[in-house]
Amino acid sequence: MKNIDIKNKLKLFNILLILSFIVLTVAFIFLQANLLIPILFVSFLIVYGFIKFSLEKTTAYVDDLEEYLDTFDKYIIYSQTDLTGKILNVSDAFCKISGYSKEELIGKPHSMVRHPDMPKDTFKDMWSDIQTKNYWRGEVKNRKKDGSFYWVDVVIETDFDSNNNPIGYHAIRQDITSKKEVEVLKQDSERLNDLLEAQNDEKILEVIELTKDVRDTQKEIIFTMGTIGEIRSKETGNHVKRVAEYTKLLALYSGMHEFDADMLKQASPMHDIGKVGIPDAILNKPGRLTEDEMTVMKTHARLGFDMLKHSDKKLLGIAATIAHEHHEKYDGSGYPNGLKGENISIEGRITAIADVFDALGSSRSYKKAWADEDIYKLLIDGKGKHFDPKLVDIFMENKEDFLAIRDKFVD
């Protein structure tokens, strides 16, 4: 705001008017009539110029003041009450954080935003300080219109009239809800740590062991379900074992966290679970599929996704994604959705390489295993087309480790 002292300007204006009046009076008494007009004209110009200057400065001051008040109203959580606590005025910021409109607040007791969690002693101390010091500061939990809450750091001061008699109170607040939530989380964490440290007895160990058994059972069920599609298509359970190991190793080499890589390993056996919905005549046909038969075969990706997508478990969520996307291609020519590049999940891109590598390197009733060099050539030729080029490079740089897995789980 500009530093304009209106009171001084008005005082100066009054003095100038008085002086002008005196000058004009003297002029009428002592000067000749022919000099009065020039003197009156000069006096008029001086008064007019000063009035115009004062009005311009006053207008600028008022504009700045209005801008300041608008900013205050928008961003400062402010309220004013009478001596009984009845609300006289609130800012827009107060309305925004409380959820009430000004019409709903003005004229009502300020206690309408008081939260029941606040101890009564807090307000007792507050009024004691205000009565003795005309000032109080503290943290208060308030209730919103919708029943939720917010925390504020409050400063309350007493308002006085011109005779120094108290007439009410005004308060300015700062929103500290996020700070208080962090403090609560920290306290809960500390209590939990204390509890875990205190309860290291046999019951805790039993719970941990039971949880491990449940997780192991879940892994076994998922792996068994994953083999169903392979068995129906005359493939071996070792295929899903190898693909699982390949995916984890490639995930780790690509920089994935070990926990996430292990989740990928556990979920990848489900990549072809949708094959349970493909007719045997198509699934196990020894020769090349017709165009119509291939269309049916391609539906296994969506079938697998539809079977798994309803679970809220993270592991089955990853399995659903893999089943849906392991036939997508990096250039967008894959199925079922024609996803392109990194729009394909990292789990889908990793499983695509692992699945193709193992499928080509394994003998089936309808084909012989490819030579390793031919598989490598297909992977390299498919960089940026079928496969993620970065993942292909990582695979090729560590191909001996993947061959070791294949040898370990040979059919």
For the structure shown, list the relevant keywords.
411 residues, alpha+beta, Beta-Lactamase, Hypothetical protein af1432, 10% strand, elongated
Could you give the topology of this structure?
Elements: H1 6-30, H2 33-75, E1 77-82, E2 87-90, H3 92-98, H4 102-105, H5 120-133, E3 135-143, E4 149-160, E5 166-175, H6 177-198, H7 202-232, H8 237-253, H9 258-267, H10 280-283, H11 291-308, H12 314-325, H13 346-360, H14 372-381, H15 389-397, H16 399-408
Antiparallel strand pairs: 1-2, 1-5, 3-4, 4-5
CATH architecture of the largest domain: Orthogonal Bundle
Question: Any idea what the shape is?
Answer: elongated
Domains (count): 3
Strand order of the largest sheet: 2-1-5-4-3
Which structural category do the helix and sheet elements fall into? alpha+beta
User: Ends: how far apart?
Assistant: 84 Å
Can you describe this structure?
The protein has about 400 residues and is an alpha+beta fold. It has 3 domains: about 5-75; about 80-180, Beta-Lactamase, CATH 3.30.450.20; about 205-410, Hypothetical protein af1432. It has helices spanning about 5-30, 35-75, 90-100, 100-105, 120-135, 175-200, 200-230, 235-255, 260-265, 280-285, 290-310, 315-325, 345-360, 370-380, 390-395, 400-410; strands spanning about 75-80, 85-90, 135-145, 150-160, 165-175. Strands 2-1-5-4-3 form a 5-stranded antiparallel beta sheet, with helices on both faces. Helix 1 runs antiparallel to helix 2 (about 35-75), helix 8 (about 235-255) packs antiparallel against helix 9 and helix 12 (about 315-325) packs across helix 13. The longest helix is centred in the N-terminal third of the chain and has 43 residues, at about 35-75. The radius of gyration is 41 Å and the shape is elongated. The N and C termini lie far apart (about 85 Å). The model has no long low-confidence stretch (mean pLDDT about 80).
